[in-house]
Write a structure and sequence with these properties.
- This protein is α/β, with parallel strands linked by helices.
- It has a single domain, classed as Vaccinia Virus protein VP39 (Rossmann fold).
- Helix content is about 25%, strand content about 25%.
- The chain is built from 4 helices and 7 strands, in the order H-E-H-E-E-H-E-H-E-E-E.
- Strand 1, helix 2 and strand 2 form a beta-alpha-beta unit.
- The two termini are about 25 Å apart.
Length: about 170
């Protein structure tokens, strides 16, 4: 679905705010909640700058165009394509300070997920995924919502892991 659990928000924001990224690529934008939170706490929270002077470069990728809504306006650009088809385009944007995959990596096979992580350049990485991936078919007519893989600490041995209820967050 185009959303994720609310209880990881403080943990994710704590990590992101400490890192102070100047560029973020959000894979699987969905509804756009994470973009709003990143924009608010990395640009708007510091009132030293005029509102229109955005310092954060915020890019998103969402394969399902029907999720488009007014919240997406907080992004500098959203690519409405399957991320696998635009990896060369994302590479042309240069290295991102933060690559964010919030409840999306389970929608790819392990091979596809590893390809995404290896072909997009980034300094820091945050991945949120269910601890136990349940069977999920298309949601809202979106076949990109099908669950295809399950990820664990063994897949990210050099990353920190935080677990909250049935979700897990990996970050470096």
């Amino acid at each position: 679905m185009p959303s994720s659990r609310y209880d990881l928000i403080p943990k994710v924001l704590d990590v992101v705010i400490r890192q102070q990224p100047k560029s973020i690529c959000d894979i699987g934008v969905g509804f756009g909640k994470w973009g709003v939170l990143f924009r608010e706490y990395l640009d708007i929270w510091d009132v030293g700058e005029p509102y229109e002077n955005r310092r954060l470069k915020l890019y998103g990728v969402e394969a399902f165009e029907s999720y488009d809504n007014p919240i997406w306006q907080v992004y500098d650009k959203i690519f409405t394509k399957d991320v696998l088809s635009i990896l060369p385009v994302l590479s042309q944007l240069g290295k991102f300070d933060l690559l964010f995959l919030g409840d999306v990596i389970e929608h790819f096979t392990k091979e596809e997920g590893k390809r995404i992580l290896s072909e997009i350049e980034y300094d820091k990485l945050i991945i949120i995924t269910p601890k136990i991936v349940s069977k999920q078919e298309a949601v809202y007519g979106n076949s990109f919502e099908i669950h295809k893989s399950s990820w664990s600490q063994e897949d990210f041995p050099d990353m920190f892991r935080t677990e909250i209820n049935n979700q897990q967050m990996f970050h470096n």
